[in-house]
Structure formats: C-alpha cells, structure tokens
Design goal:
Chain lengths: 238, 260
Amino acid sequence: MISPLPLPPPPPKTALIHAQSLTKTFTLHNQGNRQLNVLHHMSLTVNPGDCVALQGPSGSGKSTLMKSLYANYRVDGGTINIRHDGRWVNLAECESHELIDIRQRTIGYVSQFLRVIPRVPALQVAAEPLMELGIKKDEAEKKVRSLFTRLNLPERLWSLSPTTFSGGEKQRVNIARAFAVDRPILLLDEPTAALDQKNREAVIQLIEEKKATGCGLVGIFHDKDVKSRVCNQTLTFE
Amino acid sequence: MQPILTVENLTKTYGNIQACDRISLSLYPGQILGIIGESGSGKTTLLNAIAHRLPIDQGQILYHKQVNEQDSNTIDLSDLPEPDRRRLMRTEWGFVQQNPRDGLRMNVTAGANIGERLMDIGQRHYGNIRTEASRWLTQVEIPSDRIDNLPSTFSGGMQQRLQLARVLVTQPKLVLMDEPTGGLDVSVQARLLDLLRSLVRTFQLSVILVTHDIGVVRLLAHRLMVMQHGQVVEQGLTDQVLDDPHHPYTQQLVSATLIP
C-alpha cells in the first residue's frame, strides 16, 4: 500500500509572503554551460507591517531573491506564496497574464533603474501605475504631485522626461511611482542609494507610513542607518 | 479574464523549410505581445498567418469577439468567408506593414488614407471625417496642412506614421505590427511608443509586435516570445525573458544588445 505524501504545512493565515525552499541556478550557455548556484533552499515569511532587510556581501544572492519575489527571475524549485485578492497564489506557477495582474495590484517594486519611454513627462511616468488601475488622470496626478513635493523633487522637473534627470532625481521618480499605489507588498532595491540625507529622511518617513497601513516590505539597504531604523527583521546571506 | 486571440499549433512550411512549427499562443485584452528573433526565424510568417494573409498548413486561429462585458463569440478564422475576413481586417483588426507602401494607398491623399477606414466603419459626414483625419495626423506628428498631399511625397518615416494613423483611426481591438518603428527617428519613435501605450491602456487594445529592437520591446511589450528556426524557444513576461534568459539563443541575443 502506498501512503499519501505528507501535505506541506499550510501558509500562516496572516502572512503576506510565504516563500519556501527557493532554489535558483543560472546556466551560462556562453561560458561553456557554467552553473551558478545562487539560492539554496531559501525561505522567508513576511507579515503585515514587517520590513525585512536582506543583507550579505555582493554576489550572495540578495537581489536574486528579491527579483524572484517579483517573478522577474524564475526560480527552479520551491514555492512563493503571495496573498493576492484574499487567497494564496504561488508565483512560481502563475501564467504571464496573472503575474501582470498581481504586479498591478499586489506587489510593488522599486528598482535601482528607471526605464521609461523618452519624452514622457515625469508626472505621467509616476502616475501610470495608478491609471492602469482605472484611476482618473486628475486624481492620479494629484497623488503623485504630493509625493514629488514630499520627496523634494523640484517642480520645474515634473513636466520633463526623467531620461535627462540625475541619479537621485530618477530614483525619487521611481519611488513616487511605486509608493503612489496602495499595494500590500513592496520590494525595495536600495531605495536610498542615490539620495542625500534630507531625501533619505523623506523615504524613511514614507516607509514608516506604509508599515503603519499593514504593508509588508522586503528591502536591500546598504545604508546601515536607514536599515536599522526601518527594518524589524533581517535575513542574512553568506 | 478571457483571451482575445488563441492560436493553436500553427504550422506553415515552405517546401522543406519549417517557417512556423506548431506555434501556440494566447493574447489577452490590453496586452502587447512582442516577438523577437533573427531574420528568417519565422516572425513575419507567423504574423501573416495569424491575419490569414497566407494559407496555413495546420492549426487553428480563434478570435474571441467581445460582445459585451461577459460574453464573447469565438470566430475561427479558417471558417470565415473571405468578405467577412476582409471586413474584420478593416474594422476590428489592424495590420501595420513593415514597408508602409504596402499598407497605404499611394495614389490617394493622406487624408483619404485615413478617411477611407472611417468610411469602412460607416461614417459618412465629410466634415467629421476630415476633422478626425487631421486630428490623427497631429497625433502622429505629421503637420495637418499636409492632409491633401499624396503619401508618395512623404518621407519614409512620415509614411510609416501615416500608416499607423490609418490603422489606429478606427480603434481596432487587435493590431498586428511588423517592425512598426523601423524607419523612424528616435524622437518620433518615442512619441509613437507613448501613443501606443496610452491606446492600449485606454481602449484595451491588444497588439502583437514583431521587431528586432530589444529596446522597443523592453518599453512596450508586456510579454515576449523568442523565435528561432520557426519555433518558440522561450517565452514569458518581457522582463523575465530579458533579465533571466534561459535558452542559449536568448542569452546570446541579450548579451549582444547594446542597451538591453
């Protein structure tokens, strides 16, 4: 008689992200099929109001885990359960059109780079995710204006394309774009790397507000001061 | 959500050459699907086959015509009588040719090229048609005082933009594009990318976009298919395929791009 396989334990009721046993290997075909094992059975649980810092040296897999949580990288093994629309979905098994929906409404991502269509004004770039959710242009732009003001982005830049902006200016457009939408999960890839002290404070304040609303955050922070102030958990990579 | 287009096991051969080998895809409303691959990989054949501009050997092309919010009618393109297929191509579908001279009527004016499509969908008021044509010329950054000129007096880039205006004026549901930004200067290209993005968002337009330009795909396409020798070797969300390419050919393609 064959006994049924034991079912994996159900994800905790309140969590937002419940990732288990993630593995990821890159195969570099142009380097003689060299294999790079980056993630070995990584697990992570994020609850509402958490801010989890991923820490470790360069090349240890922090970004790979973060990108896997956004389904930008496709993991080879393990499950990434995300609470979407009040139910659990496993990102590792979602179809493309489901991922598009999950990214629009549930998972936000602040990347280090801003990739935009040239000639589109910064205000419109940051308002776009809101408008994709069906929010009216006026309302979306109002929200973005208030974020730009809080992030000290000079008003003369709002109607210009971010392609000519400085690193710090681009980063603030990127932050406004992600923070404008009220998604329950937010991933931050070095959000304060290019910012001065004053703007770092503004970003810390925004992160604290997100936490207070029950948003779960995962971030890579090279700035020790920012990390110690906003994060309540750390996951260390070796 | 229901797809607007389903392609199942589409196969097309030219003698011994497999131009499209059992290709399946589904396209959802409001999505842009990019198709990249080297010359001769079967991209254009696939696009022409979907539009039934070529007879196919095997497979099915199903168009799910939206009737109202919930319901849709499924149309099998192989069963569709030729006049109906042509009407569909002029109204709910659009096809943007790589060479604008193939997509335009070269011996009628720019305004007539746009207006003709409006008359196809039943508009008869000359004043309204002319106003709409002029508005679309402005949208694609052709001065509206060129409305009475023949396309043959336009530059290649202007002809391409005119072709886009001609296709988009009837607000189609599905547009198939073969290298639409090929001959355009970068500034107009950026304007058109922005225009397409807003049309997709506002009217839930769906697009299949064949291109060589990975930069264009990165900014415009939600999903991406990579073709080689008539087969789909990799597919997924655009950022998945470009940031984490699995197939040797995709890795080679991404690493050879100037700004991926």
